[in-house]
Amino acid sequence: MPRKVSLDELNRLTVEDFKTADKYPYVLILDNVRSLNNVGSVFRTADAFRAEKIYLCGITGTPPHRDITKTALGATESVDWEHVQDVVALIDRLKQEGWTIAAIEQAEGSVGLQDFEPLANKKFAFVFGNEVAGVNSSIIEKADLVLEIPQYGTKHSLNIAVTAGIVCWDFLTKLNKNLTH
């Protein structure tokens, strides 16, 4: 009979160990995300899936803030982050540094997440947009690809924190599979 494991049995990294541990080759860009709870949840996801960094752009809230802290559960201390006002300038800089920019949005010519195959030698920057307006068109135009999560219900979108969790888990699952083959 399965049993729930205790927190001690999980052997999680300390914040100090996390800071020095190798990260997976991806960053998350949150552009104009209004909900501080969503921001905190994305921090927690970035910690769980060992992202290199989170960029908080435009009006996206930044730590320290009690609503971010409440959902991040300490991940604001482990995950590197930076506030950048101009997301387009950030994307231009990341592209020059060799990052592949992937906007997460429903758009013409998008690639279904199930068909996305990350290459082990590439670094990815996943861009998530505003809860209502989504990813800005100027970012979509600059992106190297647009990824879309297939949906089969009546709603046309997912919560940004849920979307980030799906994208991060999918990326790491595929990347680790490619590294072992």
TrEMBL record:
InterPro entries: Alpha/beta_knot_MTases, rRNA_MeTrfase_TrmH, SpoU_MeTrfase, tRNA_m1G_MTases_N. Residues 27-169 form the tRNA/rRNA methyltransferase SpoU type domain. One of its GO terms (biological process) is RNA processing. GO terms for cellular component: cytosol. Keywords: Methyltransferase, Transferase. One of its GO terms (molecular function) is RNA methyltransferase activity. PANTHER family: 23S RRNA (GUANOSINE-2'-O-)-METHYLTRANSFERASE RLMB (PTHR46429:SF1). This is TrmH family RNA methyltransferase. It comes from Larkinella punicea.
